[in-house]
Amino acid sequence: MATLTLDRPTAATPRPERDARKRRSIIGTIVLYVVLIGAAAVIMLPFFWMVTSSLKTNNQVFTVPIQWFPDPVVWSNYVDIWAKSDMSTWLRNTLILSVAVTFLQVFTGSFAAYGFSKMRFPGRDVLFLAYIGTIAVPWQAYMIPQFILMSKFGLSNTLWAIIALQAFGAFGVFLMKQYYDSIPEELSEAARIDGLSEYSIWRRIVLPLSGPAVATLTLLTFVNTWNDYLGPLIYLRDRDLWTIQIGLKTFVSQYNAEYALIMTGSVLSVLPIAIIFMLGQRYFVQGIATAGLKG
Amino acid sequence: MATTVAPAPTRVPRQRPPGSRLKLRNTFIGWTFILPNFIGFAVLTLVPVVILFYMAFTSWNVFGSADWVGLENFRDLISDRTFHTALLNTGYYALLHIPLTLAVSLGLALLLNTKLRGVAFFRTVAFFPYITSIVAIAVVWNMLFSPESGPVNQFLMALGIDNPPGWTTSTTWAMPAVALVSTWRDMGYYMLLFLAGLQAIPGELYEAARVDGANKIQRFWNVTIPSLRPTTFFVTVMLTIGSFKVFDLILVMTDGGPGTATLVLSQYIYRKGFEEQQFGYASAVAIVLFLICITVTVVQFLVNKRRNR
């Protein structure tokens, strides 16, 4: 049982690692670093260009040759944009939606996954098939009947529409179930023999063991809701309900020659989520690597 | 026990007293776990999918009632030139996007599955595009791809290419441009899935292979790749479905243009449904999209299952 619960950490046992390091030549390491740094630079270049352009005057955005660093640095773009757009409304709406959706998705998703992974009862597999089946069904295929239904409920053109739309996705259930399946059956079985109820097994054993999966799901759901453009595009008509994505898109078509200001708006739409990601990232990536340690 | 799922052949059937009351109780508890999610899921996903199949056989539009027209919508689709274009464009996009993203994300995962100092930073960098908003990156890349003085073409001209492509303004290059941007955006996510798969491979397997005298390349083909199969399966399914339902990036980057060069199925559904209010006809297009995704999934599932035997 110990080998089962510890399968991930043993992937990094010190012995083969030391051997490998001895064998790996210094040149190899340097080459790897050069490749990594090169790849990182290419990946990040669009963001670098976005940030520097947001600090330029409008005429300096497109120059031949490229002007890599703004001169002078035009901070005023970051003041002007609040006056020229409803940025604060958009950000507030997006935040409300992201938090509500993430909470509901993680809670109901991990709860349902327990039923699918650790319990056996008639009809379970048929139900799970329904979930799996709809993962394969693109939302675009049923967005029209969904819209008609949502309008009938009176949810169209309210923030509730987006919450209902995003919070009960099959993806969360699927992701959590995949992870629960990797938790040894013996653990929940032992708890059952000790007299724990199924709810307690979920809350006290399975859920604490699945921190990395919960973190992954939290992050992905939050990011997806924040970045969702289509849901708000279809459901949110009133200007004061708009999210950052709709707002930014409208702003771009309205001020289509104000390149520097458009870049400023883009930076502002990316910045909050970048900060959240940086803060949660250590737990997120490490969490995947150290999964199962607590067992 | 008949319900035991396929991927757990080693699971020993639990020993339970065969009391039917216990079974009933178990069923009840199982349902309470699933219900909170299932109610929302059923009302907002399952029911709409069922309605979709009804709507596709009606002439439902915003004014009229839902008159049953049988296969008329589908007959119209066969001669609808714009629909053909959208279908072909979507296939073309998938053909560009799937292999490219699969290769790049697996490559990144292998590259970053080391204990090198600072590797966490590089993982963050690779994942970063995925967390940024579609609208922001579409706007930025549109500017980068700008034909006359955009950075991409300036770079290409510096490399000696005298006639760099017009990217999103060219009917030939608009789709590759979109596919490039979406690969750049998605690769970090699929890389993380691959990384999780790589790290779940027990170290003992590598050690055993090493004891047997397998070199690095042999270990890759005989340990890494087979152990990654469940991950690769998951990634491929997600990637394929993701490609066929591509929508928002195209909507913001090219809006289907120039002309209909990047018009994809999803956008055609949107146009017919929300802009022209032809709910019935749009649903027929949606069914085509639905069938493509289901077929791909089933085929991939069967192939994977056979390979596992």
From TrEMBL, chain A:
Location of the region described as Disordered in the Swiss-Prot/TrEMBL record: 1-20
Transmembrane segments: 25-49, 95-116, 128-148, 160-180, 201-223, 259-279
Protein keywords: Cell membrane, Membrane, Transmembrane, Transmembrane helix, Transport
Matches recorded under PROSITE patterns: ABC_TM1
Domain ABC transmembrane type-1 per the UniProt entry, residue ranges: 91-280
A Pfam family that the UniProt record links to this protein: BPD_transp_1
Entries under InterPro entries matching the protein: MetI-like (IPR000515), MetI-like_sf (IPR035906)
Chain segments annotated as coiled-coil in the UniProt record: none
Gene3D superfamilies to which the protein is assigned, alphabetical: MetI-like (1.10.3720.10)
Source taxon at top rank: Bacteria
N-terminal signal peptide: none
UniProt KW Transmembrane helix keyword: yes
Subcellular location: Cell membrane
Membrane-protein topology: Multi-pass membrane protein
Entry similarity comment: Belongs to the binding-protein-dependent transport system permease family.
Protein name: Carbohydrate ABC transporter permease
Organism, as annotated: Occultella gossypii
UniProtKB/TrEMBL annotation, chain B:
Keywords linked to the UniProt accession: Cell membrane, Membrane, Transmembrane, Transmembrane helix, Transport
Membrane topology recorded in Swiss-Prot or TrEMBL: Multi-pass membrane protein
UniProt entry tagged with the keyword Transport: yes
CDD domains for this protein: TM_PBP2
Assigned protein family: Belongs to the binding-protein-dependent transport system permease family.
PANTHER family: ABC TRANSPORTER PERMEASE PROTEIN (PTHR30193), INNER MEMBRANE ABC TRANSPORTER PERMEASE PROTEIN YCJO (PTHR30193:SF37)
Protein's name in the database: Sugar ABC transporter permease
InterPro entries, sorted: ABC_transporter_permease, MetI-like, MetI-like_sf
Organism in which the protein naturally occurs: Occultella gossypii
Ranges of residues in domain ABC transmembrane type-1: 87-300
Segments crossing the lipid bilayer: 28-57, 92-112, 124-144, 187-206, 227-247, 279-303
Localization of this protein: Cell membrane
